[in-house]
Amino acid sequence: MEVPLRKTILLFTLILAGILLAACASKTDAPAQAVQNYLNALVNKEADKLPALVCGDWEEDALIELDSFQAVTARLEDVSCSQTGTDGDTVLVLCTGSIVATYNNEDQKLDLSVRTYQVIQQGGDWLVCGTR
């Protein structure tokens, strides 16, 4: 039984469109994913990972931010990040959700939506390079 040529072309076109959409989505989501990776490194206190996640100009600030979590247990809650715009070569990323910091059995929620992260591409990698 032969599959009509029209169905074969339609199936091939749909598969190709799906592949292209997935490729485009991963590229546009890369800056948002970079911010989420940075936030995960903060709450998990992974100082060794920070230099690979931030630009050189912001590394000291990132380490200071990491230090602020040393005396607490921290976790991310309902975090979602998305690109909101650009400013020249800088991609702007806004996150929703919060970092929950627990100290002496008391939770303090830090609202992530009050900061816009600045993300740049260097050497093929997306790096967090400040906040607004």
Descriptive tags:
132 residues, alpha+beta, five-stranded antiparallel β-sheet
Could you please describe the fold and organization of this structure?
By secondary structure, this protein is of the alpha+beta class. Helices cover 39% and strands 37% of the residues. It contains three helices and five strands; from the N terminus they run αααβββββ. Strands 1, 2, 3, 4 and 5 form a five-stranded antiparallel beta sheet that branches. It is globular and about 60 Å long.
Briefly summarize what is shown.
The protein has 132 residues and is of the alpha+beta class. The protein contains 3 helices and 5 strands.
